[in-house]
Write a structure and sequence with these properties.
Layout lengths: L16 H9 L5 E5 L5 H10 L2 E6 L2 H9 L4 E3 L14 E7 L8 H11 E9 L4 H8 L24 H10 L3 E8 L14 H4 L2 E7 L1
Parallel strand pairs: 1-2, 1-4, 2-3, 4-5
Antiparallel strand pairs: 5-7, 6-7
Length: 210
């Protein structure tokens, strides 16, 4: 995938292919809600480059302040408990950027995001990637580019695989409109990602609908 050159406001985005992929697929003028929006970098880019009407939900107080500093509208909320206040079909796209595996009930969050928005876009870290499987063979949890923190100090409580997420979509009767496997710098045999993404892609972006 070629990397386009933008101004410095999305320098961090260019280091993450999943965020670049999400940015490139959003139509101009869309209504966007980012669940677990972090510091608001992605929403700021979508606001500036796609003229999107953006909003975020974030629990962490420090990240909330960073969103405000960037001029990104944000609501403090718990994704497991506080989404009932959003009306049905109020956004064109609801985003989950490496967030799904950090909530208590990913299945309920998927249902909520497709109630609130017409379409969902999910960036998903693949724990089935070979870079993660090799340490497990030797009895250790992986620590690498995608999982830089040790098991006792990270927010991921549901270490699922691409295959696991596909199965969950089927169980919830969610349609996958597009699946985009992604390989990052340093991935082992990344050219095999298109053939066997569950083993050779460290990330995957899914576009989903009811």
């Amino acid at each position: 995938m070629s990397i386009r050159h933008y101004n410095n406001t999305d320098e961090l985005l260019l280091e993450r292919h999943d965020l670049q992929t999400i940015r490139d697929m959003i139509p101009a003028g869309s209504r966007i809600l980012d669940l677990g929006c972090g510091s608001g970098r992605l929403l700021k880019v979508l606001k500036e480059q796609k003229q999107a009407k953006v909003a975020g939900v974030e629990l962490d107080q420090q990240k909330l302040m960073q969103c405000i500093e960037r001029g990104v509208p944000v609501i403090q909320g718990d994704l497991d408990a506080d989404l009932g206040e959003f009306a049905d079909n109020t956004y064109d796209f609801v985003l989950l950027s490496r967030t799904l595996q950090s909530v208590r009930r990913p299945d309920l969050l998927l249902q909520e995001m497709l109630r609130i928005g017409k379409c969902g876009i999910i960036s998903f870290m693949n724990f089935g990637h070979i870079n993660n499987r090799i340490p497990l063979i030797f009895g250790n949890m992986p620590v690498n580019r995608n999982l830089p923190r040790p098991w006792y100090n990270n927010q991921t409580i549901h270490p699922g695989t691409i295959a696991d997420l596909r199965n969950l979509f089927k169980e919830l009767k969610i349609r996958v409109i597009k699946e985009i496997p992604l390989s990052n710098k340093g991935d082992f045999l990344p050219f095999l990602g298109k053939i066997w993404p569950n083993l050779f892609c460290s990330n995957c972006v899914f576009v989903i609908e009811r």
